[in-house]
Fold this protein.
Amino acid sequence: MTNWVRRHIREIVLWLLVFSIPFDTKKFIWSATTTVSEYHGIFIYGTDMLLLFFLVFWGAREIKWDKYSKLLAIFAGLAILPALWSATPLLAVYGWVRLVLVIAFALGLSGLIRKKAVGLAAVFAALFASAIFQSIVALLQFREQASLGLKILGESVIGLTTPGIARVAAGGLTYLRSYGTMPHANILAAFLGFGLIAAIYLIYRADKPWPRLGFAAGFFVILAGLTFTFSRSGWIVAGLALAALLAYGLFKESVRTKAVALLLILIAGLAFTVPSLGLLIFARAGFSSGEPSVADRVAYDEIGLLKFPETYPLGVGLKNQVLTAERNGWYRDFGLKYAFQEQPIHNIYLLMMAETGVLGLLVFAAFIVTLLYERFRGWLKTKDGEIWFALALAGGALIFGLVDHFYWDLWSGQLMFWLALGILMGIGPRSPMDRMSPSEGEGAGSIPAEGTPF
């Protein structure tokens, strides 16, 4: 083992963990039903070893008993209580262990970022590289209209005839929406949104033209990959995040030229993709209350609002929402007659309330409101670029959580969600980039090696 590896092994492990988030490789252990799914099953994931290695040797030691960790400890305590009366206690305990792992990951990562033991550039570089890989897989999947045989990386076996697969139809033809190695196209879209934010961060940070050109090319590839997910929610959230970061860049003199160039790249990308994929893009551009994806989401939200708080105010236990709704006949009560429609509530806050109870949701809300308020107030005082990027990353995830469930109950989504919150917790009123050059300090962003404050 070289001296460089010894010095940077912590950052390498974290880099590999972040890069591997989209790999859905898993081993089935047990299911509460005859149907095998992550909604009511127990799995061991390929990323578990990296996560445990990170927590045992570094992350767990960085957890401080501050107001964030106290609120999250209360939240975790409330989340385990429903296991005492849940329909499937084993699932509730399993879900709770998973929740504790990602909360510990977020708190440990925040501590390392706060003390500059891990550079934010390394985390964003891992997101950027992984998003490029996923985008290439997405492009090839769309070209082949089938999976690529990357089962070892967790790729779903998909094709146009696969039951329940995400598709887009236009002009009398139906096309497969790209999944990457994620469980669904929407989850891939969320991750590629993370990748676009990381790309902009690296472009703004780069001083030399060649790295900046490489990051810009990667931005274009990720943008193309996001297009082929045909995820409306993914497009909207990514668009909001890009607008916020471009606006920041246009008003920040030190990166204004880079922001203008990036805006031109974005316009060129849209000019390239819209004419060639116009029918498919416009087919996904609108919303109708009668279309199944919208109507089903409304029904799920109604179940979450009208049934669970009244019947189970203390929650039904983690991983127990779907089973509870099935056994009470609530899906059929709200017009969801088919087995494939028996899915989690597509809103992480309502889903959280259903599984941890009303009090659990209130504690989590207190944590989020406190964190966002303090970080936004810090940005107003300092106009710190890293705080703005952390707010864009976490804010995008919180908005996406209003219309989907994967940030709460699917492992890759959980890792993404708590990664974003961990970064936001770790970025203080003044970020490491504003106090030191990237080459100073232990682990201060050695990947990539260049950069200036912005």
Q: What stands out?
A: Confidence is low (pLDDT under 50) at residues 430-450.
